[in-house]
Structure formats: structure tokens, C-alpha cells
Amino acid sequence: MTTTSSGKPLRADALRNRAKVLAAAEDVFAAQGTSASTEEVARRAGVGIGTVFRHFPTKESLLEAVLVALLERLAAQARDLASAADPGEAFFGFFARVVAQAATKQAVTDALAEAGVDAREATGRTGPDVKAAIGTLLERAQRAGAVRADIGPSEVTALLAGISYAAGRAGGSDDVLRIAFDGLRPQGGTADQAAARR
Amino acid sequence: MTTTSSGKPLRADALRNRAKVLAAAEDVFAAQGTSASTEEVARRAGVGIGTVFRHFPTKESLLEAVLVALLERLAAQARDLASAADPGEAFFGFFARVVAQAATKQAVTDALAEAGVDAREATGRTGPDVKAAIGTLLERAQRAGAVRADIGPSEVTALLAGISYAAGRAGGSDDVLRIAFDGLRPQGGTADQAAARR
Amino acid sequence: MTTTSSGKPLRADALRNRAKVLAAAEDVFAAQGTSASTEEVARRAGVGIGTVFRHFPTKESLLEAVLVALLERLAAQARDLASAADPGEAFFGFFARVVAQAATKQAVTDALAEAGVDAREATGRTGPDVKAAIGTLLERAQRAGAVRADIGPSEVTALLAGISYAAGRAGGSDDVLRIAFDGLRPQGGTADQAAARR
Amino acid sequence: MTTTSSGKPLRADALRNRAKVLAAAEDVFAAQGTSASTEEVARRAGVGIGTVFRHFPTKESLLEAVLVALLERLAAQARDLASAADPGEAFFGFFARVVAQAATKQAVTDALAEAGVDAREATGRTGPDVKAAIGTLLERAQRAGAVRADIGPSEVTALLAGISYAAGRAGGSDDVLRIAFDGLRPQGGTADQAAARR
DNA sequence: TATGAATGAGGTTTCATTCAT
DNA sequence: AATGAATGAAACCTCATTCAT
């Protein structure tokens, strides 16, 4: 993501400003919600409002960019864990870490949802990246018998969102995370369990 | 909720309008999010904007009223199930029903959170009602061995919120609900499981 | 002023309400300025808003009525003093008393001026009454040599308004009143002064 | 007043617009009273409503700015006369000129009073400037025996306000001004008078 | 006649976006 | 490319006035 939509490479200073704006936006939206003003983002970034709009022609595109950045970071974390020694630990560790980061992401996910933009469409090719990375973690954990076999990446992603929400808003304690983990593990008395024992 | 804050009973027509506004607000906020305009609510209700503000002097108070109405409805449903024959079925049935209704409630819960109002405080005495009713369902299900014994109403409520969110936003299928249910059941290898098998 | 504009006599209870509203309006406008809401007047009067509008079909007419009532009271006070023993004392005493009451009257005078209504027209036949009563006091004081001879009721009224304003807003002390009095007395080196020394 | 509250100098075009808005506000408030809408001010200034609020973030701050501008102008006029040849003429000339300008100033003074803002506080350091300049004029006139010795700047200011009000509202003729002048001159039978005759 | 609920124009203020500097 | 002033639509809310009860 080092070029504009027009495909032309950005000058060094422009690139630096783009990064400053993005970082500021992440902070501001996390702190004040997505209804924070674009001007506030500019102020925090230390640039003029015009500069924000030069890089992100609408507020929605700014929110989208923040979301993409977050998802990219998540995907990277997932890929880092893809070759960990203990697949189960890798999977659940990733899950827990995402939930812990939820406060910020929540704001942005909400925003896009509210703006009437489907998150999956907005995130373009980043969404699949995350899903693919999660899929890898999931498969390894399932093969190791640490996670039930009858679910796929979509279910994991949805559950991740829900538990993150609970953690951010409902003041959910670790107990909620524990319940989710128990639900994700192979369940007793089923074919899953048999597979887990193998 | 048939009186104003001043304690005087409302005239029949006023009461009817209040209900119309509340219903419209529920629809509008569910459909467009809580940033929908008050004027849109008035339009949908078929009343003048002044009427909305007569009944709910600020937008926040309108959002609050919508939330309270929703919670009241939930509490009533929970109470209805408190004496059902099968406590486990009652508990899980309630959970599933709430999640199914989630689209609307989500909008409002978000709104209050964003508005800086603590949902638990805003809902005044309605929140406790819901929690109490859920507590009753939970206890009965735990005593019957249908639900794990190491959680309380707070965890259930938080999980309810999270799964509802997943259902409303992340397009969570029934699989997510199934995972949550499995996590809520007595877990293998513990005293709970023994109780469950009895 | 015991009839409506339609000429029909008011029922006893209607008359009582009219008086209550008028008194409340005086209080409210004096305390909060003329931008106070009509609803506030109704509340203070202990009647419904509809009742206020039944008696005074517009807010302007209510302000006008308050002003008329005030002027009537002033005229009565002036008439009471018309036969006082000392004409000079009567004149200056009246002047001082009016200024002391100014706070309330100010609000209303301003209001009418702001509302684009010419005070002289609005007050209809009451204005002349006041002016006539002031004229009588003035003439007697002039004949007694206590007030300069080269001014008429119009100048006295204007000065009265100005000094009242100063008293109400500019925090004018008694000194301002003293200056006005000195300016109103027969001035040195003229026929007036001779008369004053007689 | 060539900078914003943030201390940064304004761009040339912004400065021009600020002046246009201020001038328009003076006109509009003078003509229609302080309850005139901000939109009317924008229309008269030929700018968008947003521009008005960029320069004056609330209506009250706009009213305040108009008042400050007026007081500054008055202070400048007073200072110009501070070294005039005839101190008495300077003092009374100033007084007369202020009264002649009264229509506009009245509107604004009223406004601030109504808005619950103490004019003296709101005007910051401009109020004292005016009073100081008036004080200089007064002292010189008193030393020259043209004005009575037993009053100070506060009394002059209050009287100024009152007579201005009379001139603007009550249709006061020059006679009222004459009365005030006579009251301000050294009064017969006192040390003042002796000084005046010298 | 009295009441107060309903109305909607209009007021202040915010903010995403555009454009001159 | 960067800036920030200008714009105006739209939001929330008030209040004089009308009208059904």
C-alpha cells in the first residue's frame, strides 16, 4: 500500500504524511469513536485538513484504510504463528491476542457497518488474507486435535468478532474467553472426540 | 412506562403517539444505525419533529427509551420461561431467541456506548430486571446439569451480547451459536460432566 | 380593560385567569427578560398554555398588555401626587420612584422596541394618560419654580426612560439621579433662577 | 484584533472576511436588534454561514466582538480629544457624539446584558480603555471648571448610557441632552460655581 | 372555557468536502 | 504537495401558535 489509487508512486514526504495521518486516525477513532471529526485527525497528525483529504478523499476511505491496516497487522501475527511448535497453543494464543486488541478494531468495524459498507467488500484483498492465515492456524490446530473438526475459518472469524465485542463493551471478563475456548475444543461423545484421541 | 417524568398520566392520544414514536425509533435505528436523524424517526412515525422532542427531550433520551423497551421485552420473555418444564431447553431457547432478535438491539447498545453513557446506568432499574431473570433461568439450568456450574449471570450476559453482535454483523451462522452452547455446557472431566451424565 | 377585544364581558373565572397571567408575565419578563417563553408564563400563572393564548392571542399582545398595566400604574401614582402640598417634592419624588421601579419596566420597554412595535402606538390610549399626569406634575412644579420652565412632558418622559435604563443596566448609582435633578432645576443666570429665588 | 485566539496571524483573505462579517453584524444588530439571526449576518456579509462561525464560534462571541469594536472606536475618539484646546468643549463634544451614535451600541449592550454576560468582563481590556479615556476628558474639563467636580468616570459612563438610550428609543430630542449637560455643569451655590466664574 | 399535545419554521452549531493561496 | 479558509447541507433543539379533547 505504498501507492495511490492512480498507481503513481508517492514522494517520500507524501508517504510520510500518509503514515502520520493513518496512525493519527487509528488513535483518534479508537479513543473517540468513529464519529470523531476528520479535523481532529488532522490536528493529531500535525497536518492540514487538506492533506488528509488528499490522501483519503472521503472520510469513509480513511476509516477503510484504518481497518485494512489493522487487518494486515492481524494477518501478519497469524502468519508468524503458523509455524509455531504447538499448533493448539498457537491458535488459542492468537485468538486471545486479537480479543485483547479489540477496543480499537471495534470502533472501525462498527463504522464501516454503519456506513452501510460491507466490511468484506471494503477490505478488498486484505480480508481473505486474514481469513487464509486464520485458516492455516485453524487447520493445524484441528489436525493436532486441539480444536473441533466441524468448523471452518468463517465460524472462527465470526466468533472472534463476537468475543471481541463482548470484551470491549460488555466488560467481559476472561470467563467469556474461557467459554469460547471450551466451545472450540473437540466435544465429548462425538466423532470429533474420537479424532482428538487418535 | 405510561407516565411522563412529571408523574402525570398522559392523555390517550399522547400515549398513542409516544408508542408510535418509540416503535418508529426502534425500526429506524435498527435499519440505519443510531446516527439516523431524529427527523427520520418523526417521518416514520408520521408525527411532527416537535412531537418527538416533546416525548423525548433529547436524542439520547430517545435512544435510552428504545433500549429500555427492548430490555423490558427481554426480561418478560425470560420470566415467561422461568417455569418451563425443561430448564436446559428454557435456557438455551432463550439464548437463541435473543440472538435472533439481535439486529435491533445491537444498534441501540452501540449508540449508548458511543454516546458516552454507560448502558448499565442508563437502563436504570431495567438492567437488573433482565439480569435477575437471566439469573433465574441460569440457576435452574445449572441445577439440572444442563449448564456448567462455574459461571454467573454476568458471563451469560456478556456472551449473549457478543454472540448477538456476531449474528448481526459478522454474518455468523448457527455454527457460532452451536460453539457457544457447547462452551456453556458442563465440560468433560469435571464434576459437571458427571452431573450431566446422571 | 375588563373586556376582550370582542367587547363581551368576561366571566368571573376568565377575568381571574387574565389577571393571573398578566401578573405572572410581569414577574417572568422582569426576571428573565422578554425572551422568556410563553410557556414559562403559563407555568408561573398556574394555567395551561392555551389559556394564555386565549386571553392574549400573540406573545406581542401579552407584552403590550404588561406594558399597559405598568403605565397605568404609573399614571395612577402621578395622579395621586397631583394635589400634594409641595409641587417640587411631588415631581422629583415621582421621578425617583419611577426610576426605582425600572428593572421590570425596562424589560418590557426593550421588548416592544425590539419587536419592532412603536411603544407610543402600542400603548394606545394609556400613553397619553401617563403623559397627561406627568404634565400636570411638571406644570405645578414649574409654576412653583422647582423645575426649569423650558421643557415639556416629552422631555421629562424621555429623560425618565434614559435614567431608568441607566439605573437598571449600567449600575447607575444615585449620583446619576442627582445629575438629572440638577439638570432639571432652573438654571443659573436666567429668568428661571430668578423665579427659583423668589 | 488581527489574530485569532490561537495567536496565529490570519491570512489576508481571512482577515478581509472577518472584517466583512463584523461590519455586517454591526449593521444587522443595529437595524433588527440582537435577536437577528446569524444567518442574516452572513447574508449581509456575503459569506456562507460557516464562515461566520469559523471566525466567531458562537453567536455570543460575535456580539461581544461587535461591542468590543464599538468601544474601541469610542476610546479612540476620546483619546483624539484628550489634547483639544478647550477641555469643556472636548468633553461635551464627545458626549454629544457618543449619543448620536447610540442606536447601534444600544443593541449590543442590551444583548450582552441579556445573555447574562457582564459587559465589563466580556469586553476584557477594552472597557477600562474607554473609561480611562473618558476619565482623562473628564478630569481636564473639571480642572477647567466646565464640569462639576463631584462626579467620576463611572457616573459619566452611566449617564452616557442612559441618555443614549433615551436618544435611541424614546425619541429624545436635543433637549434631553441639554438637560444632562446642565446637570453636569458646576452647580450654583457651591465651590464649583465659584470656579466656573473665574 | 381550559387544557396541553401537536406542529413546523427557524435558530445555532458541526463537519465533510472544496478550492484559492 | 500542503495548507486552512470557505462552504452549505443537515443535525439537534426551541417556541409561538393551533387544535383536538
Walk me through what this model shows.
Chains A, B, C, D: It comes from Actinomadura napierensis. 4 copies of one chain form a homotetramer. Chain A is mainly alpha-helical. Chain A folds into 2 domains: 49 residues, Homeodomain-like (Arc Repressor Mutant, subunit A, Orthogonal Bundle), CATH 1.10.10; 139 residues, Tetracycline Repressor, domain 2. Helices cover 72% and strands 0% of the residues of chain A. In chain A, helix 9 packs antiparallel against helix 10. The termini of chain A are far apart. Chains in contact: A-B, C-D. At the C-D interface, helix 6, helix 9 and helix 10 of C face helix 6, helix 9 and helix 10 of D. Chain B binds a DNA duplex (21 and 21 nucleotides) through helix 1 and helix 3.
For the structure shown, list the relevant keywords.
198 residues; DNA-binding; homotetramer; mainly alpha; Arc Repressor Mutant, subunit A
Largest interchain contact: C-D, 38 and 38 residues
Q: Secondary-structure element order of chain A, as H and E?
A: HHHHHHHHHHH
Tally of structural domains of chain A: 2
CATH superfamily of the largest domain in chain A: Tetracycline Repressor, domain 2
The CATH class of the largest domain in chain A, by name, is: Mainly Alpha
- Low-pLDDT ranges of chain A: 1-5, 191-198
Q: Specify the biggest β-sheet of chain A.
A: none
* SSE-based structural type of chain A: mainly alpha
Quick synopsis:
Chains A, B, C, D: Residues 37-56 bind DNA. Chains A, B, C, D: Residues 15-74 form the HTH tetR-type domain. 4 copies of one chain form a homotetramer. Chain A is mainly alpha-helical and 198 residues long.
